[in-house]
Amino acid sequence: MMNFDAWNYPYASRRTVVYANRGMVATGHPLAAQAGLSVLAQGGNAIDAAVATAAALTVVEPTANGIGADAFALVWVKGKLHGLNSSGPSAAGISIEAVKEAGHSEMPTFGWTPVTVPGAPAAWAELVAKFGKLPLTKVLAPAIELAEEGHAVAPTVARGWQASAKRFAEMFHGEEYQGWFDTFAQDGKGPNPGDVVRLRDHARTLQAIAETDARAFYEGELAERIDAHARKHGGYLRLSDLASFHPEWVDPISVNYRGYDVWEIPPNGQGIVALMALNIISGYDFTDRETYQTYHRQIEAIKLAFADGKHYVTDPRSMRVSSKDLLSAEFAAERRKLITDTALLPEPGKLPSSGTVYLATADGEGNMVSFIQSNYMGFGSGIVVPGTGIGLQNRGHTFSLDPNHVNALAPGKKTYHTIIPGFLTKGTEAVGPFGVMGGFMQPQGHLQVVSNMLDFHMNPQAALDAPRWQWMDGKHVVLERGVPAHIAEQLARMGHQIQIANEGGSFGRGQIIVRMPNGSLAGGTEPRTDGHIAAW
What are the entry keywords (predicted)? Predict the structure, then answer.
C-alpha cells in the first residue's frame, strides 16, 4: 500500500487530511456531502451515498450539472471493480446532413441540437438497484428536501451562476431558453452567496424519478414533456430515444504505474488519455516534483496523449483501433521518443472549458465509489424543460460534422466524452477513488494527482493542494501562481508559451479517498472550490 510515512508535504498547509472509519463522502459542496453522509447513517452503503450526493449536487450546484446530465461511475464491491457508462447517444433522427441543412457548419454549442439522451437519472436507479441497500425514494430524499425547502448558495457556485446569467442574457433570445431564465434567473441575475434558492419544479421531478426508479424520466410524463419541448423548438430528441436508453456496465481499463493499477472508464470517455500519458511518463524516474524537467515531461506526455485521444477516441463501436493497442508499452515507448528538451507542437483541436461535479464515497463495509456527473460547459445547453427543472446537457457539441472524422455525428452514436472517474488499486486490494473534474483538464488533473501521490508520496490533501498546470493547445501552457518562478522561466526557454493564471482559473476540482492498511479512510478535498468531506 501507499508509503504513509512520507505523507508530509508543504502543500498540505491549506487543509488537513480527514480521517474516518465508518464512512466518508468527498465532493465540491458541503450540503451535497452531508446528503450522502445522512444516507450512510440511515443504513445505506457507499453506493447509496454516491447517488444521494449526486442528486443533491443537481440542486446545490446547477452551474455544473443537472437532472439532464450524463454520468459515469467506478464501483468497488466485494473485491471487484465495476464500470458504469451512463452517457447517452445522439437522437435517432439527427444526422450531419440535417444539422447542415439547418444552417450550421459545425455542431452548435447551445440549444436543442447538441442535446443527447441524458444518462444521470438512469445511472442513479441502476447503481441503487444493483448495489445499493436502500430504496431510491430514501436515497433521493435529501436532494428533494434541499430543492423543496431551499438551500443557501455557496460562494463558488454563486460566482459561476452570476457569470452565466449575465452571459446568457446577452446570448439567449429565443423562446426555447425561457425555461432557463424562469428557473435560474427570474430577476435577470444569479444569486449572491448565502441567498436561499428554492427549486420546487426540480423537487417534483426528483420525486417522480425516485418513485418510478427513473422510468418517469424515460417513458412517463417527464419524457413526454422533453419530447414536446424538443419538437416545438427544432430539437431531434424524441420519446423513443429516451425509452430505449439503458446504462452500460463496462470493463474498466488500466495501466500499472509505480506498482499501482490506475483505472478509468473505457472509451467513449477520455480516461484513456490519462492512462496513455501515465504510460509515457512511466519511463522516467522523478526524484523531485518542483523541477522544470518534471513539469516539461508531464506536459509533453499529456500533449501526445491528447493528440492520440482526439484522433482515435469516440463511441467504441466506431473506433479504428483498440484501447489495448493505445495502452501498450510499445506504443508508449514510441511516443516517449518524441519528447526532447524543446516543447512539442502536436495537432489536437483547441480544448474548451467545461462544467462537471465529482464525488467519492466509501463505507465501513469496504465499498467505494468514484462518480462523476456533468451537463458540460456549466449549465449545458441552456435548455430547461418548462415546469420540470430539467436542465439538459449539450454533449453533442463535441461531435464533428466532418463525415471522415472518427467522432463524426451519426444517429444513435455516443460522442467523445470528457468526464472521467478514476480509481487506484494495488494487487487485489482497493486503494480508493479519485477524480479531477473540469472538461479537458480532467486527464491532466488525473496525471498530476496520481503522480503527486505515487511519485512524490503526497497524502490525498497535499496531492490536491499542489499547484497545477494546464496545457491549452499548441505550446500554450497555463500555470497556477504557486508554480515557482524559476520553473516557469525555464519552461519558457524550452519553447513553452507560458501564461500565469489570475486568481482562481480553471485547473479542475478534485476529491480523493484512500483506504489505509488498517481499514481507516483518509480523504482530501479541493481547495479551489467549496470542497467538503463529510466523515463518520
Answer: Transferase
| For the chain, domain boundaries | 17-247+354-398, 250-352+440-529
CA distances from 218 to 229, 337, 394 (A): 15, 49, 18
Decide: helix, strand or coil at residue 338: coil
239 to 211, 215, 228: CA distances (angstroms):
20, 12, 9
171's CB contacts (< 8 A; 6+ apart) are 110, 382
Give the residue carrying C-alpha cell 486568481.
Answer: 503
- Identified catalytic residue from 356, 418, 425, 529: 356
* CATH assignment, 250-352+440-529: 1.10.246.130
DSSP E strands, 121-197: 151-152, 196-197
Walk along the chain (536 residues) and give the pLDDT tens digit of each residue: 565 444 455 554 457 899 999 999 999 999 999 999 999 999 999 999 999 999 999 999 999 999 999 999 999 999 999 999 999 999 999 999 999 999 999 999 999 999 999 999 999 999 999 999 999 999 999 999 999 999 999 999 999 999 999 999 999 999 999 999 999 998 889 999 999 999 999 999 999 999 999 999 999 999 999 999 999 999 999 999 999 999 999 999 999 999 999 999 999 989 999 999 999 999 999 989 999 999 999 999 999 999 999 888 889 998 888 899 899 999 999 999 999 999 998 754 334 445 678 999 999 999 999 999 999 888 999 999 999 999 999 999 999 999 999 999 999 999 999 889 999 999 999 999 999 988 789 999 999 999 999 999 999 999 999 999 999 989 999 999 999 999 999 999 999 999 999 765 589 899 999 999 999 999 999 998 889 999 99
Dihedral of the alpha carbons of 433, 332, 499, 354, in degrees to the nearest 10: -50
C-alpha cell of 254? 488500466
Sign of CA dihedral 508, 354, 513, 305: negative
356 classed as catalytic:
yes
> 3-state class of 8 per DSSP?
coil
Percentages helix, strand, coil for the chain (3-state, rounded to 5) are: 40, 20, 40
CA distances from 51 to 73, 268, 516 (A): 10, 22, 24
- For residue 103, report the phi and psi dihedrals to the nearest 5 degrees: 100, 15
CA angle 487, 492, 497 (to 5 degrees): 125
